[in-house]
From TrEMBL:
<dbReference type="InterPro" id="IPR029066">
    <property type="entry name" value="PLP-binding_barrel"/>
</dbReference>
<protein>
    <submittedName>
        <fullName>Y4yA family PLP-dependent enzyme</fullName>
    </submittedName>
</protein>
<feature type="compositionally biased region" description="Gly residues">
    <location>
        <begin position="401"/>
        <end position="413"/>
    </location>
</feature>
<feature type="compositionally biased region" description="Gly residues">
    <location>
        <begin position="427"/>
        <end position="440"/>
    </location>
</feature>
<keyword id="KW-0663">Pyridoxal phosphate</keyword>
<dbReference type="Pfam" id="PF02784">
    <property type="entry name" value="Orn_Arg_deC_N"/>
</dbReference>
<dbReference type="InterPro" id="IPR000183">
    <property type="entry name" value="Orn/DAP/Arg_de-COase"/>
</dbReference>
<dbReference type="InterPro" id="IPR022644">
    <property type="entry name" value="De-COase2_N"/>
</dbReference>
<feature type="compositionally biased region" description="Low complexity">
    <location>
        <begin position="414"/>
        <end position="426"/>
    </location>
</feature>
<feature type="domain" description="Orn/DAP/Arg decarboxylase 2 N-terminal">
    <location>
        <begin position="49"/>
        <end position="267"/>
    </location>
</feature>
<feature type="region of interest" description="Disordered">
    <location>
        <begin position="392"/>
        <end position="440"/>
    </location>
</feature>
<dbReference type="InterPro" id="IPR009006">
    <property type="entry name" value="Ala_racemase/Decarboxylase_C"/>
</dbReference>
Amino acid sequence: MGGQPLYLEPRLESRLRSLVHSPELLHTLTDALGSPLNVLVPDQLADNLARFRSVYGTHHLSGQVFLAHKANRSSALLRRLAATDAGVDVASLGELQHALGAGLTPDRITATGPKTPEFLWLAARTSVTVSLDTRDELEQLAALVRAHGLPRTRVLLRLSGFEASGVRVLTRRSRFGTAVRETAALLEAVERHADVLDLIGVAYHLDTTSLSEKTLALEGCLRVLEECRSRGLRPRAVDIGGGFGVNYLADGGQWERYTTALTEAVMGIRPPLTYGGHGYGLRNEAGTLRGALGLYPAHRPVAAAGYLDELLRRPAASLGGRTLAALLLEHLYDLHIEPGRALLDQCGLTLTKVLEVRDDEAGGPLHIRLAAKADDVALEDHGVLMDPVVVPRHPLNADGTGTGTDTGTGTDTGPGTDTGPDTGIGPDTGIGPGTTAGSGTGTEPVAAYLFGNLCLEADLITRRTVFLPHRPAPGDLLAFANTAGYCMDFHTTRAQHQPAARKVAAWQEGDRWRWCLDDQYWPTTPVGGAQ
């Protein structure tokens, strides 16, 4: 492996760090339940919620935090959510049934996304708030409520196509919501069906983390709310959806070094950094760099609750320059949000067992085959590049030989090297870069391609060359951290009769980890009922 390893260390907070430091537990779980295996940490969800609530408190705002259910279909996470004061955003009939069964009351559920008549009926029957995308959807809901004698249904109008006056702000199109220029016709339909529909506010959905675009959208929503009031309607909320982002990496410098090196590799200045020369959207056309880097910005200094705080501090240029938070507060509007990825930050990891480690004949990166499919570890489907953590079955002695026991994860490299709970693995953990942990034939860093277990050339767990602190051995685990948001089961399949990953929920009791199957977890789960 030429040059310095281009690590992309995952950011691990205290719970996930502690879990990764429990190799005996993780190997016991995969030995019993198979690989891949998803391990969820429901209590982290409550901590993430508290951070968002803190932002509400800072700006003296009220409103609801709705978990975007589509991000993960875990029962444990949903039941833990039910034990808080938060709600859930459901986008299908099955998700609505799941939420109700997990203990969430209808006043804490909002229904979004494409809707079938059955989905609309159950939402109206149970008095769930419905976010309507089009006038046709509004008419369909009104007809159902009348035909079945259902209670008057609370609705939000989801809008799109926001435009700025003065300096033009480029906004991407969304297939969700009605264009703002058609608001008048939408409000006329609301007034016509006022006997069965109760308009409580407006909403938007933008597939972007651009603060400028979201500022423009929230300004547009505030103007529409004023139009509603001028018509005698009484809206009281605005739902700004999700897209608050996650900081996946411990070190921004690593991210900058990697993306620079990737560009150089595409241009032929250095050897390829990906399997087959994949450029992640970049290409070399006769010596000129073309395309755009199609990757999630994995190191984000401002993300999750911090992103919400920054958005609320933005001035509304078209509304007198007051901050968005001040305008919401002055009009006593509730602020609703629908984080998925951000609310599930640090809430789980995916374990995969190493099946085979092969040396490439050309002297290139190792070929590592895992007991998992690419769909089971869908980080790259979302453009997220992040190193897995090696969880060895046996630690190494100083000479690079295995001990044959499960008594630890490596040796400490000395005092003063720990970088704190919000950074990556760190040198003193025994499993990070530059350490002597693990099993195998040596402790030097290695470059590797990670392949899945399907009989398919395209089954690549990672397209990029992954740098590991040492050579893993068959039987070791690679733990992919922070996969709870969208990367566990959003894309998973049962191709070639390969099993989908099972799920377990884990929680701490003092310095000990306890666990149970995902479907068996409840906030009241007694100690005696779990492992």
